[in-house]
Amino acid sequence: MKDQLTIERISLAAVDNEQGDLVQFRQNLGDVDALAASIREHGLVSPPVVWRANRRRVEGTDAGARYVVIDGSRRIAAIRQLERAWSRTDKPFPLTNLFCSVHEGRVDAARLLSVQVHVERDLVEDTNRGDEAVAVKWLLQTGWDPMQIQEMLGVSQAWVSQLKALAERLTSSSMAALQAGKISMQDALSLTRLSKAGAQVWVVTFTGGAIDTGYSRVDLKGSIADLRRAEAANADKVLGITERLFLGKPSQGVVNDTATYQECTRLIRHFKPDVIFSHWNEDKHRDHRAVSELTDEARWKAWDHVLADLGAPFYTPEFYYYEILELFPHPTILVDISETMDVKLAAMDTMTTQLDVLPNVKEYIRGVGLARGFSRGTQYAEAFLRSNLLATPY
């Protein structure tokens, strides 16, 4: 397929760097300053590979033509960066027209070539597994089976199996995070293992109403509630949360009253969880203590044969408290999170307003993870404390 390429000099303005008609690689081009400096000093040594997206050429010119990048997005971005810098001088930009390897074939052939060149480069340079997963996903969607992919790309069966798992089970937001380098390959595979196991996670946020006190600047007071709901939605995408519900209670105003207690009971009967995680009842935050007491008692009431209008009785076998700022002196279990610490930190990054409320909180999260990991004998771990309000059946 690569023998269908011809070397042509084309206009930089006619090159579309967004790969709109092809497979979406290179979501994160990274810093191109060093590459731009190299091109400025040595010229464009390796021509980009482009696909002519239409045939409109007037007398051998690029008038009306459009080219889509197959390989060389970073080179094109670096050249455009140089062009912007050159525009501040009186000198003509020397790369207004540049030599490219042009593919003239059908769009499916161009897509397949795009897959080949990206995967071959990534395998040699050991760069972006997210791009490789996108390649495998496209091949699977167009009818290729794993054996054909293995033979065409010259890769191992294990490589195809891993990328197939990512392509089939990773959410689009988690795939984008992998491509952008925000989560590692190990993190992504951990997420797919949870998906394969059928794990579903529902989050109930007791607050989320019009009154929210989690602002660090006065100018945020009127918008903080909306901002925090949006941040929560972004965190859910990173973590793969099934659904989040907001009860709309005022911040610093969650109370253990009958209405909230019965709503907790109804939700437990509705979702029928295998395990419930909640705040510790010795947390300094008044809302956290209230949520802990409400949820723990509602777990018992959900099993009690009363309040038939709230659903059928349901017994949740396990209930654990998690740590925030108050740490357990004697945790019940320590869970290895070495493969998912980057995901946890990426989720924290979505909470932009709270990064100012809790300065250095990411360093704190990493530090607690290291300390708990030391106790468990792993790099990172999380501690949980089992509630003893109800017995845990074995």
Shape: elongated
Strand order of the largest sheet: 1-5-3-4-2
Radius of gyration: 27 Å
Beta-strand residue percentage: 5-15%
Structural class: alpha/beta
Largest sheet: 5 strands, mixed
Low-confidence stretches: 56-60
What is the number of beta strands? 11
Q: In sequence order, what are the helices and strands, one letter per element?
A: EEHEEHEHHHHHHEHEHEHEEHHHE
- Report the span from N to C terminus: 61 Å
**Mean of residue pLDDT?**
82
Helix content range of the residues, please?
Answer: 40-55%
Count, helices:
14
Describe the structure.
A five-stranded mixed β-sheet has the order 1-5-3-4-2. Strands 8-9-11-10 form a four-stranded mixed β-sheet. The chain has 394 residues and is α/β, with parallel strands linked by helices. The chain is elongated. The model is unreliable at 56-60 (pLDDT under 50). It has helices at residues 33-42, 73-86, 107-125, 129-141, 146-153, 157-169, 172-179, 185-196, 224-239, 258-271, 286-303, 341-349, 352-357, 361-376; strands spanning 5-11, 15-16, 49-52, 67-71, 97-103, 202-205, 243-246, 275-278, 318-322, 333-336, 381-386. Helix 9 links the parallel strand 6 (202-205) and strand 7 (243-246). The longest helix is centred in the first third of the chain and has 19 residues, at 107-125. The chain has 14 helices and eleven strands. Helix 3 runs antiparallel to helix 4 (129-141). 45% of the residues lie in helices and 13% in strands.
Can I get a quick summary?
This protein is α/β, with parallel strands linked by helices and 394 residues long.
